[in-house]
Amino acid sequence: MNLPQPKVPFSPEEYLAWEHEQPDRNEYVRGEVFAMTGVSEAHATITLNLAAALHAHLRGSPCRPFTLDLKLRVDAANCFFYPDIFVTCDPRDRGVDAAFVKRHPKLVVEVLSRSTEAYDRGDKFAAYRTLETLEEYVLISPERTVLDVFRRDASGHWVLYPFVAGDTLELASVGFTCPVTQLFEGVGPEAMAS
């Protein structure tokens, strides 16, 4: 996250009206608005690789993947985020009312950077955990070539499933598997700067 925008606090309705007119993306956290910064080449490549694979896998199903240009509302935490990738299969996320903001993801993916890692693992994950439909939260580290998949179990607890190069990633929420190396395809040392 970056520095907050000057007008504070915004109501959710004020934020949506204001943000719709902005040239850049801005996240909303309990009345404060934060400008989103650009991402590294590695971040963009990993996001594209996974989004493309999920899109192909989910084609013809009721589930749809979305990338970092669509808002996800977390009502219980009073937040609007732009996840790197999220998947929703919920009929409530279809139609005119959900054209710009979704609320019922099954899967959320964040590609980490040095400036966002602590937030993505801490406060943002705490907010996402309030989403009743969320089954998996994935954190991808371009620098370490690892993925941490947090999966909600039957008792509502979040269990960590780590994946490294050489493993086959499994996203149980959407029945998806692929080699971890496929997600990092095209990411060389020159693209790793965050």
CATH architecture group name of the largest domain: Alpha-Beta Complex
Number of separate structural domains: 2
Please report the first level of CATH classification, the CATH class of the largest domain.
Answer: Alpha Beta
Rg on CA atoms, Å:
16 Å
Q: Number of DSSP helices?
A: 5
Task: Please list the strands of the largest sheet in the order they lie side by side.
Answer: 3-6-8-9-10-11
Q: Count the strands?
A: 13
Beta strand %: 25-35%
For the biggest sheet, the summary is: 6 strands, mixed
Which regions are unreliable across 5 or more consecutive residues at pLDDT < 50? Answer: none
In CATH terms, the superfamily of the largest domain is tt1808, chain A
Distance between the termini: 13 Å
* Average predicted local confidence, pLDDT: 92
Note the overall shape. Answer: globular
Remind me, CATH topology of the largest domain?
A: tt1808, chain A
Class by SSE composition: alpha+beta
Encode the helix/strand succession as letters.
HEEHEEEEEEHHEEEEEH
Helix amount, in percent?
10-25%
